[in-house]
Amino acid sequence: MTGPLPDLAAPPSNPNPNPDPGADQDQDQDWNGVWDWDGSWDLDLDPSAVRALWPLDGGVAHLNHGSYGAVPRPVQQEQDRWRARMDANPVRFFRREWQPAVEEARRAAAAFLGADPDGLALVANATAGVCAVLGSFDLRPGDEVVVTDHGYGAVTAAAARACARAGARLVTVRIPLTATAEQLAQAVLDAVGPRTRLAVLDEVTSPTARLVPVRRLVPELRTLGVAVLVDGAHTPGMLPVGLDELQPDFWTGNFHKWVCAPRGAAALWAAPEHRPTLRAPVLSWRDEEGFPYSFSMPGTADSSAILSLPAALALFDELGGWPRARARNNALAGYGQAVLARALDLRPGQGLSGDPDGGPDGGEFAPEPLLSMAALPLPEGLTGPDRVQQAIADRAGAETAVSDWNGRLVLRVSAHVYNHPEEYRQLARALPALLHELLAAEQN
Ligand SMILES: Cc1ncc(COP(=O)(O)O)c(C=O)c1O
Questions:
Q1: Cis peptide bond N-terminal to 292, omega within 30
Q2: Is 234 near ligand 1, meaning CB less than 6 Å away?
Q3: 314, 337, 372 — which closes off a domain?
Q4: For residue 317, which of 263, 237, 371, 419 has the smallest C-alpha distance?
Q5: Which domain range does residue 396 map to?
Q6: pLDDT in tens, 190-239
Q7: Is residue 7 part of a domain?
Q8: Which residue has the higher pLDDT, 34 or 249?
Q9: pLDDT for the residue 1
Q10: How far is the CA of 127 from the centre of ligand 1 (A)?
Q11: CATH number where 184 lies
Q12: For residue 59, what are the CA distances in angstroms to 45, 102, 397, 399, 413?
């Protein structure tokens, strides 16, 4: 334990929880009415009908969509149909139907991402996409690869391994939790030197839910002669992608997170100059066709996840379209962050003393706009992310993400169309007392 117990706000009480948006008008008005939900619902179905589309445990607030996604019933049913078709006649399916179906899904994926289909391959997940790039990229001894300290663990480990194999150096840019977009971009640019060959940048960071300004950084880094691999694991469904405009060197992203496809559905895009040298990690019968078809047949495989992508896209059209779903999710994540910040007594503009690099007062707490996830630093001195995550699940009935980020625990909550403002309020009511207890237990 490194400091005194924080002065956590008394949990706001709500004697009559009402699941209707905006129902808590009289609750806790002392931070600009943060307890109110004034965002519109803005979907074509009412909240309970939307929630019923997901087979999620009704007793749990599912506030961690970011880690593993959540598959809606119509998409599960579509995947079941593909599997039934596969098993009704495996020989017919794999010899005559599989690759044409994969090709159709690949083209649907390219259209959704605004990508030239010749540059888009299907992969099982973002980790596989990153590993394909790092396994193919021609790194030489003394070269440098830039990552940030907000990077996803497995991706940073893959970059470290590629560097070790080539005798290159991994440069990890330290970026305060509270850095502005401008400071964040500048920190990355400042790390570029004459030997920098590649930058691996997450568009939305995993432990800290920060938006990395890749739309600004990609052209600047490429002008400096640095290739950019954008890890867009969280981007599809959370933000517009527009690969034809972004034009990085490489991009990978998941459909099994915010698009709600079944797990195992992801894409890898490469700029034209990299396509001839980009190798599939698993060499297949289609290898000679080159990128992207060299990725379409990774041995005998169950492709039902990616084959169900069109069903996931169609579901969101029925709900009112992606722009509406994204706008609502971003607003709800912001609401969740505000309610939880109130519970943790964090105020915009307030210093975070525990932030390792945040200047004299540790930088300022500033909510990140436009995302479907939001992060909050937990009280200084709290340790054991798994223990805290489990305590929140067991005692507050909410699944969240808790990470140890540079020695500070960070709580991340998400918002998708099935979530409701009351779920964040419930967590906010439970969190202060729960954290007090966990901290007290650590002090003893
Ligand atoms: C930023 C980032 N990159 C990569 C990944 C890896 O995704 P997957 O496990 O689907 O490969 C994640 C997963 O959460 C992530 O958040």
A1: yes
A2: yes
A3: 314
A4: 237
A5: 47-54+321-443
A6: 999 999 999 999 999 999 999 999 999 999 999 999 999 999 999 999 99
A7: no
A8: 249
A9: 29
A10: 6
A11: 3.40.640.10
A12: 22, 37, 7, 11, 17
Ligand 1 probe mutation, 254, 373, 412, most atoms within 8 A of CB: 254
Same domain, 213 and 335: no
Judgement on whether residues 283 and 339 belong to the same structural domain of the protein: no
Has residue 188 been placed in a domain? yes
Task: Say if ligand 1 is within 6 A of residue 214 CB.
Answer: no
Q: Are 114 and 241 in contact (CB under 8 A)?
A: yes
From 130, 147, 150, 234, mutation site for ligand 1 pocket: most ligand atoms within 8 A of C-beta: 234
Domain contains 29: no
According to the per-residue pLDDT averaged within each range, which of 45-49, 173-177, 394-398 is highest? 394-398
How many Å apart are CA 49 and CA 213, to the nearest integer?
36
Q: 258, 290, 314 — which closes off a domain?
A: 314
Ligand 1 close to Cβ of residue 125 (< 6 A): yes
156 touches ligand 1 (CB under 6 Å): no
For the stretch 304-342, pLDDT in tens is: 999 999 999 999 999 999 999 999 999 999 999 999 999
206 lines ligand 1 (CB under 6 A): yes
Among 131, 152, 202, which residue has the most ligand 1 atoms within 8 Å of its CB, making it the best to mutate? Answer: 152
How many angstroms does the Cα of residue 17 sit away from the middle of ligand 1? 35
- If one counts the domains in the chain, the total is 2
For 63, the token pair is 């506030």
Say how many residues make up the chain. Answer: 444
Q: Give the span between the Cα atoms of 350 and 327, in whole angstroms.
A: 27
Q: CATH number of the domain at 370, please.
A: 3.90.1150.170
pLDDT single digits (tens) 381-407:
999 999 999 999 999 999 999 999 999
Shared domain for 358 and 404, answered yes or no, is yes
In this structure, is residue 106 part of a structural domain? Answer: yes
